[in-house]
Amino acid sequence: MASRRVCLLGALFAVLSVAIEGHSASSEASVASKARRQLKEEPNPNDGYDYMQHGFDWPGLQEGGTTKYPACSGSNQSPIDINTNQLMEPSSRSGTSAVSLNGLNVDGAQADGITLTNAKVDLEQGMKVTFDQPAANLPTIEIGGTTKSFVPIQFHFHHFLSEHTINGIHYPLELHIVMQEQDPADVATAQLAVIGIMYKYGEEDPFLKRLQETAQSNGEAGDKNVELNSFSINVARDLLPESDLTYYGYDGSLTTPGCDERVKWHVFKEARTVSVAQLKVFSEVTLAAHPEATVTNNRVIQPLNGRKVYEYKGEPNDKYNYVQHGFDWRDNGLDSCAGDVQSPIDIVTSTLQAGSSRSDVSSVNLNDLNTDAFTLTGNTVNIGQGMQINFGDPPAGDLPVIRIGTRDVTFRPLQVHWHFFLSEHTVDGVHYPLEAHIVMKDNDNLGDSAGQLAVIGIMYKYGDADPFITDMQKRVSDKIASGAITYGQSGVSLNNPDDPFNVNIKNNFLPSELGYAGYDGSLTTPPCSEIVKWHVFLEPRTVSVEQMEVFADVTLNSNPGATVTTNRMIQPLEGRTVYGYNGAAA
Ligand SMILES: [Zn+2]
Ligand SMILES: [Zn+2]
Fold first, then answer.
1. I need a labelling partner for 440 at 20 to 30 A (CA). Which of 123, 368, 377, 549 fits?
2. Which residues contact 396 (CB under 8 A, 6 or more apart)?
């Protein structure tokens, strides 16, 4: 109890230090007493405003004889009511393009997806979540002829009454993902873009469940910056609508003072669902931190003042499953999946051609990748379908180099993941039980979603347990047993005190015989981009039945109802040549 009181006082102190900013404080005690006095008048945690009138009073607030928030009485304010009978065609909007969600709409487990890591939550009104700002695969909007990238900064919730209404109707919950233009000249005037997501009453939301449970077990009422451990957020799965990405776009403002009119709004049409019990947590958290607060934190609807609202039809959603092992991806408008240079393929060892006869690739040099010294550190793991290790730090040592056309392309390993029970590639028509893919990207174009990739495929046959997989799986099960991580989480560190979870490609992945098949192919998941130089090693490592069982357990605990196998079916060769290297040619 004592520690709880200390926590609360600390939180109030932090809250009110905002309200009294600019005043000099002679001692902590006087600040605290002043804080208590102000709390009585201003039950909300905000900068001298509250939700008692849902913002109706903000334009009139005075400080030192002047209007405190003049922008709040502007003519382009948010939120608004969205009348779906009066939506405009995007082509009639001048100066603002549709938003390209890019990595925001790609599963964070993919190389070009965005995962928000190192998340922290404020157990305050609105449960604001902050995180490390992603640097690549950012969404873009063309504004006034200039394409700007937008960095997600934070997200928060408006509960019991959504801020925007659609045809006059409030939803019980609205999420705002706040994004700021990358590298602005001045943060105070930077262009902002906000994504609004509605929730209707229904099933409990799995992400909100994870967020609320972790926040409540790690923090106390009113705490700021509650660590969510290795908790990370996959925007496409956790925050965006499930299937339809249609949204309403318009020019508006911040919905809290100063109400700056520099926001491109994107309010999505399809609602996610939230349960009554989950909404109750929002009110409990708010009232525990601020007993006199209004639980609703929505600003009243603002006049449109002649502004237009545009309807942007949803891009085809990148969500996919393995129910048909990818056979359906060809028909579902999933980008390149119907192309002629697709992966995986069957590798017919008797037909492998000499690597020296390959016209576009004249040499492959593993360099330090094939040494004990090439250690990948700072790794995080996704504990879900197809367990993936994301390599954190730039590796020391010489990166592998492939001469493609006239250019020596240097490749940096980004991640490794496994396909289990059925390998993706087959060798002479036969599947292996396990295939690892080490994904490497052109080191000079890491931020380009069309940048050249090179993937190393490693096969495993049944036999002795693989020591590296044993170590990884033990760390995962220990941390799950201790409650430090949960199934389905991504961005998890498996480091133990004094025993970091590092990866050495040579010792942990490469077989002793380095013969491999090389060919031009694609990503084996949507968007199936045909940008991959494949290197499938032909000598398998070994994996035990018990290790395979752990992969299945992790998948089913993370995605109940998922197909455990995550292989795309074999694709037609369409006349491509497959080459043999290091003695593997026929
Ligand atoms: Zn908001
Ligand atoms: Zn793969």
1. 549
2. 373, 374, 375
Domains of the chain: 1-41 (no CATH), 48-312 (3.10.200.10), 327-581 (3.10.200.10)
Retrieve residue 582's tokens. 């290091």
pLDDT for res 19: 30
Ligand 2 midpoint to CA 106 (Å): 15
Ligand nearest to the CA of 299: 1
Looking at the chain, the number of H-run helices and the number of E-run strands are 8, 34
Give the whole-number percent of the chain exceeding pLDDT 90: 61
User: Which whole number is the average pLDDT over 177-202?
Assistant: 96
Find the 66 Cα to ligand 2 centroid distance in Å.
61
- Return the pLDDT at 10: 32
Residues counted in the chain: 586
Please give the distance, rounded to the nearest whole angstrom, from the Cα atom of residue 438 to the centre of ligand 2.
Answer: 8
Convert the pLDDT of each residue in 326-335 to its tens digit.
888 777 555 6
* Whole-number average pLDDT of the chain: 86
What pLDDT score was predicted for residue 137? 87
Q: Which ligand is nearest to the CA of 195?
A: 1
Is residue 21's pLDDT more than 50?
Answer: no
Neighbours of ion ligand 2 (CB under 5 A): 437
- The pLDDT assigned to 232 comes to 74
Alpha-carbon distances, residue 470 vs 85, 272, 423, 475, 507 (angstroms): 59, 38, 19, 9, 14
**Who's near 125: CB < 8 A, 6+ residues apart?**
44, 45, 286, 289, 290, 293, 297
Centroid of chain to Cα 53: 36
Q: How confident is the model at residue 41 (pLDDT cuts 50, 70, 90)?
A: very low
Residue 8: is its pLDDT beyond 70? no
H or E stretch including 558? helix 545-558
Q: Could you tell me the distance, in angstroms and rounded to a whole number, from the CA of residue 471 to the centre of ligand 1?
A: 43
State residue 126's pLDDT score: 80
What is the DSSP secondary structure assignment for residue 471, as one 8-state letter? H
Residue by residue, DSSP assigns 79-119 as --EE-TTSEE-GGG--SBPPPB-GGGGS-TTSTT--EE-S-
Q: How many A from CA of 71 to the centre of ligand 1? A: 17
Ligand 1 ion local residues (Cβ < 5 A): 176
Distance 442 CA to ligand 2 centre (A): 18
CA-based nearest residue to 274, from 207, 181, 355:
207
pLDDT at 562: 73
In the block, residue with structure tokens 């382009």: 76
Query: Ligand 2 center to residue 272 CA distance, Å?
Result: 29
Q: What is the pLDDT of residue 46?
A: 53
Cα(511) to centroid(ligand 2), Å: 18
Give me the pLDDT at residue 315, please: 59
